[in-house]
Amino acid sequence: MSPKQISVLVIGFLVFALQGCEYVKLFRPSVLKQVTPEVAALLNELPNLDRQNKEIVGRLFPHGGLSEAKLDDDGVMRDEIRITEGQLMWNPAIIVMPRAGELEIEFVNEDILPHAALMPSNGDREFLLLPVHMRGKTKLHLDGPGYYWFGCPIANHAGRGMLGLILVRGNVPADTKLDRPEQPRP
C-alpha cells in the first residue's frame, strides 16, 4: 500500500470509530461558533463543581451566561447584570467571585416590566427594586466559599427563569465542614 492509501484508510477508520463519540459532534462549525469566551469560561469552571451543582449550573448558563467579578483597588469586587427586554433572565446569570468578600452588582433593567433582585448576603437578604428602564446597585457580603442563589420575586419571574447564581471560589476550612457520612447522589 502507498502512504496515501494508508492515510486514507487511517482517516476512514478514525471517522468510523469516533462516529458514536459525543465529543466529535462538538467540532461541527455550528457548535464551534457558539464557543464564546463566556462559554469557554463555563466549560473551564464546570469540572470544579460537584455533580448535582454541575447539572444545575449547566442548565442555568445557556440562559444568561457567566461573568467573573472584577476586583477593584478598594478591595471590592464588581460586576453588572442586565435584564434584556422580553427575556425574563439575568445576563449574566452566573457571577464567579475569585474569593469571599464584598461584591457590588449594578443592575440594568432594559425590560418593559419592573423586576426586583432578592440577593444573599451573609445569611441575610438584600432586596433591590428595579423599575422599568432603571439602574440600581446592591452590595453583598459573602464571607465563605459556596453557591449563592438569587432571583426575581415579582410575579413568579424566578419560576419562569429569572434565577441566578454567585459562585464564590475557595476552600472550606476543615473545622467548618459538616461531620457526616458521604451522601448518595442521584
Structural key phrases:
4-stranded mixed sheet; 186 residues; single chain; 10 strands
Would you give an account of this structure?
By secondary structure, this protein is of the alpha/beta class. It has one domain (25-172): Sandwich (Immunoglobulin-like), CATH 2.60.40.420. The chain is 23% helix and 32% strand. It contains four helices and ten strands. It has helices at residues 3-18, 29-32, 37-45, 51-64; strands at 66-68, 70-71, 77-83, 94-97, 101-109, 115-121, 124-130, 135-142, 146-151, 163-168. The strands form three sheets. The chain has a four-stranded mixed beta sheet with strand order 1-4-10-9. It has a four-stranded mixed beta sheet with strand order 2-3-5-8, with no helix packed on it. A hairpin with a 5-residue loop joins strand 2 (70-71) and strand 3 (77-83). The radius of gyration is 21 Å and the shape is extended. The relative contact order is 0.13. The mean pLDDT is 79.
